[in-house]
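Fig. S4 source data, part A: sequence.
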Amino acid sequence: MSTSFRVAIPARYASTRFPGKPLTPIAGRPMLEHVWRRACEAGAEEVVVATDDDRIAAAADGFGATVCMTRSDHASGTDRLAEVAQARGWPDDAIVVNLQGDEPLMPPVVLRQVAEDLAAFPDAALATLSVPIADADADERDEPNVVKVVTDRAGYALYFSRAPIPYPRMPAAAPAHRHLGIYAYRAGFLRRFSGLEPAPIERAEQLEQLRALWHGHRIHVTEAAAVPAAGVDAPGDVARVEAALRDDHSDA
């Protein structure tokens, strides 16, 4: 039986580096529409755009998306998702995938995979994905903006860090893995998570998932079935994404 899941897409208009990013035109459509279409292609039972901005809400409504208006004072995207879960009345065991509104190239298979992984591990509070880092790629391993993850033998996260973990004193002994910032949660845990005290390690690393580990919740990690192309971080990324979308359509 296939796994039932929802996708929530947090989308904010305000951005220091790229104001209005979700509405940026890419290949004739708002970027947010491309993200929403990827979620729909994954077979989600429900896809919801979560925003605090009327301009984003109007655009999403225009291309047929379900919109949930949220408060503007959330400290994190996870807190915004918790409000969505509450507002939509999702049951505690509902699986919710968090898809960022600047990921127009996210493979639909990856969205389904992370939902199915959470369903397969009932003792996990959330699930996420990773990809291997090649031993020769020291730049990626050492880059603080690339988050690394180490797991136990069953695939449960031991730690996430911006530092190179495991430290490559003997590189062949334990390959490094890059964490992909996509999560599946159970709606009940989402509601509880927003009430948890932020963790010292979370503040130090600026990695919200460490709050779950610090409070004793388990995170299951599996290797991604496909490697997502980078999303849109700055205006200069738009041309690259448009080219990738053209390539996708030419292969169809």
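Fig. S4 source data, part B ends here. The chain is about 35% helix and 20% strand.
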